[in-house]
Design the sequence.
């Protein structure tokens, strides 16, 4: 897929183009049985940085340490990530292990510890195997390269079945700015936070506070609009590093090409969010729920999330059963005021309900809309002009299989 | 099971003892393919009545008509119920059909239409097959009997695998007062409302406003503390009829034996709620989550519901995987303030976490606690003296199977 918008260019799928001045690595260190489990992403020079973090009250050491660090100085030069162990609910030892993970990385890269962010994902409540982790970080620091983006993308996965990356280029001040984004998702994914793990590296020159503001706003409309299973994780975060090596003038909201950058950033975030939803644990389909005709974006988002999170809607999509009553029921318990007798509902291009009542639709045509890779549900409230989209996946036998024995 | 509390006696399982002055019937009218689908419960004399109804904005005609009726006059003499068709999202025709269902019943029983309540459960958005329904009501009115409680209990089921009934007796003013309760549940069960269908008949003499208050309070602690799948239905209701034929002095909160009646009523409601949770769609186990050490009952309830609603906790219980980290994560996203570093967690009698961290527990012993019919999860916040219990079930392959093709 090669998409050329008026403002930005999306690089073809699978193109792992790191922005100028970034190197990455990923390898198997022995935290997981077989698959890669340690990833490292490093900038040549200090990068403006921004982050959003889980709103779960139970937060892993990596979340609290990164958040504290970015508050005191919004710059980073390296992100080290491990999968297989979340280092959450591990108390003081977990906090000390997280600090050691950062210190070890800093020493190997000859950086101050303050410039290293960390992320962990995997089983909750088990002590981190520090020897394996440190050996892995050492090896990763030795194998950093400009071609290492895919290895990094692989190293952060847990039950994900595929890597999730995006590369976008945009011209700012006639300079080519590149954004590379990578994410992992799968389970414990629910939109009430900065969700799952996502990392964006860019060579844009951008003001850190403008970057943080952009990240927050974009997260609400992308990562926070997906759900896999309604469970909010203890380790979720999105981190961005912008090292300025594209040499554009510093981006702030007053920059004449701010919108171009913001659009490219939004596209990259949305793309990763959708990939996470599509690869939800056990999922066979991406479900896009578009709510329109709402009185505000907030109310449209609330309804879209309620539908995409409904176990009954998700199982009906899995079984390709055009059970639109469940969609209207989920609108009804969303907590958002609306008029049930005005609601229109479409499955793909087939309208199944008008003014809150069923139409005599063609059952086979409706079913065929639910047998596609990407299922679109559209709900028109006919109350106003606002809209929003939420992303999720179907609920399948495999979700149950994967999670009935995740730990054992 | 014969339980004798200090105040009330629970009649053995399967004893369908209707209170004095009540008759019931249930039969197959052709709305569903094979199973019974029309039920009728009638009191000889007008009964004080109370009801609680779904908080879903999308509400079936039966819900709105009953609510309006009870507000204008809290007395009823008959409840007619059909399963197989929810008569929800059916617009004006649905409202007219619901009224005709009441009128037909009233005429057959020679009652004013105002004294008949109705309930429908089943598929949403399909027109009610009125001919079959009216024929069924006619037959039911002809077969009413004091032994008809079990037939009625069968007639209200949808994907339920068993009937849910309870019979309790309590002495008030030296008179024997009997409560008979019956419920259906299975799917679209979530505790933010008066949930699913439940009906209680009693021969107690009780003031209607005291009855309504008791029902509201009891519902919050019983029916509203269960979840099967997080989906709030359009047709949920609990209705109570108290016909006074036990001849006790009118019960109000000032009656010296009010507490005895309230305890018996609470027990009956809790019993039905637990039976609904245990028979959740696809469920193999009842899950009881007890939260203690909370600063208030409200916060304990919030946390207990968050845990019992977690898809990840539910699948781990299904797979008997002692994945306590998911329990703590669900406490963390409950929205209730607490101190993660003080939380203790037990699976049955095995403590698996202390002060928010994992213990080196015996994996086999913990697993065995998850292989029982009723799985108990206890969370101690160690912050105060309040507690609450929520009920749910495991999430299984069969939940997905049942709901992937419910309608087709």
Sequence:
């Amino acid at each position: 897929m090669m998409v050329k918008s008026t403002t930005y260019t999306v690089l073809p799928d699978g193109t792992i183009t790191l922005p100028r001045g970034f190197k990455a690595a990923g390898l198997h260190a022995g935290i997981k049985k077989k698959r890669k489990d340690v990833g490292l992403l490093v900038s040549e020079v200090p990068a403006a940085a921004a982050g959003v973090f889980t709103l779960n009250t139970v937060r892993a050491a990596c979340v609290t340490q990164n958040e504290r660090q970015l508050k005191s100085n919004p710059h980073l030069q390296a992100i080290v990530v491990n999968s297989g162990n979340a280092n959450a609910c591990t108390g003081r030892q977990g906090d000390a292990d997280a600090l050691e993970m950062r210190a070890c990385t800093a020493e190997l890269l000859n950086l101050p510890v303050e410039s290293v962010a960390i992320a962990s994902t995997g089983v909750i409540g088990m002590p981190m195997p520090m020897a394996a982790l440190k050996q892995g970080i050492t090896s990763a620091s030795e194998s950093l390269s400009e071609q290492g983006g895919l290895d990094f993308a692989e190293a952060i996965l847990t039950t994900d079945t595929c890597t999730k990356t995006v590369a976008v280029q945009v011209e700012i001040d006639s300079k080519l700015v590149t954004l590379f984004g990578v994410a992992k998702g799968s389970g414990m994914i629910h939109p009430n936070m900065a969700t799952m793990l996502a990392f964006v590296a860019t060579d844009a020159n951008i003001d850190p506070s403008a970057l943080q503001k952009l990240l927050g706003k974009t997260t609400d409309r992308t990562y926070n609009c997906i759900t896999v299973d309604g469970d909010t994780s203890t380790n979720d975060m999105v981190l961005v590093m912008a090292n300025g090596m594209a040499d554009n003038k510093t981006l702030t909201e007053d920059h004449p090409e701010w919108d171009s950058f913001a659009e490219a950033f939004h596209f990259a975030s949305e793309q990763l969010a959708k990939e996470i939803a599509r690869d939800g644990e056990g999922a066979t389909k991406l479900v896009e729920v578009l709510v329109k005709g709402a009185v505000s974006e907030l109310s449209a988002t609330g309804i879209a999330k309620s539908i995409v999170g409904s176990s009954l809607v998700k199982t009906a999509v899995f079984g390709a059963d055009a059970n639109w009553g469940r969609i209207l029921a989920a609108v009804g318990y969303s907590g958002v005021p609306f008029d049930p007798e005005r609601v229109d509902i479409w499955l793909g291009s087939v309208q199944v309900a008008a003014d809150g009542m069923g139409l005599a639709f063609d059952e086979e045509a409706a079913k065929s809309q639910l047998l596609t890779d990407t299922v679109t549900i559209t709900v028109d409230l006919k109350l106003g002009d606002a809209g929003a989209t939420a992303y999720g996946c179907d609920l399948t036998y495999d979700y149950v299989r994967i999670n009935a024995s995740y730990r054992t």
The longest strand of chain B covers residues 38-53.
